[in-house]
Amino acid sequence: MRKFPAVILAGGRSRRMGRDKTLADLGGRPMLETVIERLAPQVTGIVLNAPSTTAPIFGLPLVPDGLGGQIGPLAGILAALRDTAQRHPDASHILSVPADSPFFPSNLAERLAASLQSPDEIAVAASGGRMHPVFALWPMTLACDLETWMADPENRRMTGFIVRHPNTTVDFPMFDAVLGAVDPFFNVNTPEDLEQAQKIRQNWAP
User: Fold this and answer.
1) pLDDT tens digits, 83-97
2) Cα torsion at 163, 165, 168, 172 (round to 10°)?
3) Three-class SS state of 94
4) Which CATH number fits domain 6-203: 3.40.50.150, 3.40.190.10, 3.30.365.10, 3.90.550.10?
5) In terms of Cα–Cα distance, which of 77, 76, 92 is closest to 139?
6) What is the pLDDT of residues 162-176, one digit of tens each?
């Protein structure tokens, strides 16, 4: 299996949570720790995209947005592409995952990599008929085009950028939990979501 470096996107403001949701307690430890543990076996290295004021977390290299204002995940992707070109010059892609989705598949990277038909293709995860563009393999060759794209303040949507390039979608199944069928890309945005995540975790098989 081909492996790639990865970035965890943690550049959001956590407004709906009211505090840094990445460090919210999930099963007795920070949610971000679960994300790292889930991701590490799938990739060759991990960096954290977060504001430059973020304190060191779990030993991850910090890669803040190069564009100011916390303008969305595409800025984090761009920062990670630029950083990866230095850290992993032989990498063809970088994998992105968000810091607030602790239940993503253990074969995420494997299946996305297997779907690639060309070195310039973006592979995006999906479930239940919905694309999840924050879970994707991004070609290193996209950095310059992404920077040009983001120079326009109207260009902030991930799907808008993805459809400009060759792309493929990989569908992942739901999994069973206490609450019934659960989307593996369930994300935690609010205190209520966190309560639901605690229940999901009760019989979640990592």
Assistant:
1) 999 999 999 999 999
2) -60
3) strand
4) 3.90.550.10
5) 92
6) 999 999 999 999 988
How many residues are recorded in the chain? Answer: 206
CA 92 from chain centre, in angstroms, equals 17
- Contact by Cβ (8 Å): 127, 134: no
Buried b (16+ CB within 10 A) or exposed e, 20-35: bbbbbebeeebbbbbb
Exposed, middle or buried by CB within 10 Å (0-12, 13-18, 19+), for 190?
A: middle
pTM beyond 0.90: the answer is yes
Structure tokens at 15: 């407004």
Q: Give bridge partners of residue 98 from the DSSP assignment.
A: 9
